[in-house]
Write a structure and sequence with these properties.
Layout lengths: L2 H5 L23 E9 L9 E9 L5 H12 L18 E4 L2 E4 L14 E4 L6 E3 L2 E2 L2 H9 L19 H5 L18 H5 L6 H11 L7 H8 L13 H5 L6 H14 L3
Helix pairs in contact: 3-6, 6-7, 6-9
Bound molecules: iron/sulfur cluster, FE3-S4 cluster and FE2/S2 (inorganic) cluster.
């Protein structure tokens, strides 16, 4: 008998045999995690309810990985939004352990995984299914503040130039990814969905303070509305929730000051 036969290797003239896949090895360092997820199926559930899922994952996994594990290995009906998985698209804001965060920027180890981790949809927008809400009112408020460059007169024949100092004035608010974590953590918005909300004000700020823009007065009039900046009670939930670290409350205060003193 040849060595090849003993080792299970190929024999001259024989058909190649399919190899059994190697047995899956448990990944060292995995820990048991209990995810308590608020589920809602509008076709079958009169009310949302909590369900518990037990999985094993690495402390360095993101919560989004854990949700994928539930969806792909336990219950394919679990519904949530996500796209980039890297904190850029803003689609996976959810309420995790009672605080708005992006699932893809939240590590399991930072969520006290020895306890149940609670996951539910962001508040203040109509629940559609599981962790998915109707974002349309949020984007309607965004559109209302005209989040685009407004200019009058002739188009310039060269680029619109801006000094570094002028650019720095609105640098912070350019970082918004429209995730809605701020607006849906605001108690004023919870009680009055007509309030523009911090995200729309951040988007307005980005253009109001842009030296190349000529639509500041228009936007300030819009935000001077009953449901505009004056509804803000400086609660700071929005600033705490922002995954981009934007000083949301400060931006709102700057818009209020601009309205009071029109120094723009
Ligand atoms: Fe999200 Fe921050 Fe923009 Fe609000 S300001 S929508 S929390 S990125
Ligand atoms: Fe709401 Fe932020 Fe103002 S949480 S009350 S918009 S400071
Ligand atoms: Fe895009 Fe989280 S999936 S920000």
């Amino acid at each position: 008998m040849s060595t090849d036969t003993l080792s299970g290797g190929p024999v001259a003239g024989a058909q190649p045999q399919p190899q059994a896949p190697p047995a899956a090895q448990p990944t060292p360092g995995r820990i048991p995690v209990r995810l308590k997820i608020r589920r809602y199926n509008p076709e079958t559930d009169p009310e949302p309810h909590w369900e518990l899922y037990e999985i094993d994952c690495l402390p360095t996994d993101r919560l989004l990985d854990a949700l994928h594990q539930v969806k792909w290995e336990i219950d394919g009906t679990l519904t949530f939004r996500r796209s980039c998985a890297h904190g850029i698209c803003g689609s996976d804001a959810m309420r995790i352990n009672g605080r708005n965060r992006l699932a893809c920027k939240t590590l399991i180890r930072d969520l006290s995984p020895e306890h149940e981790i609670t996951i539910e949809a962001i508040k203040g927008l109509a629940l559609e299914k599981d962790l998915v809400v109707d974002m349309e009112p949020f984007f309607a408020a965004y559109r209302d503040v005209k989040p685009f460059l407004i200019t009058h007169g002739q188009e310039p024949t060269r680029e619109r130039r801006q000094s570094q100092a002028d650019r720095a004035i609105f640098d912070d608010t350019t970082k918004c990814i429209l995730c809605a974590a701020c607006t849906t953590s605001c108690p004023v918005f919870w009680n009055d969905a007509q309030y523009f909300g911090p995200a729309a004000i951040v988007s307005a700020h980005r253009f109001i303070f842009d030296s190349r823009d000529e639509g500041a007065e228009e936007r300030l009039q819009i935000l001077n509305d009953r449901e505009g900046v004056w509804r803000c009670r400086t609660t700071f939930n929005c600033t705490d929730a922002c995954p981009r670290g934007i000083q949301v409350t400060q931006a709102i205060q700057e818009v209020k000051r601009a309205l009071l003193f029109r120094r723009i």
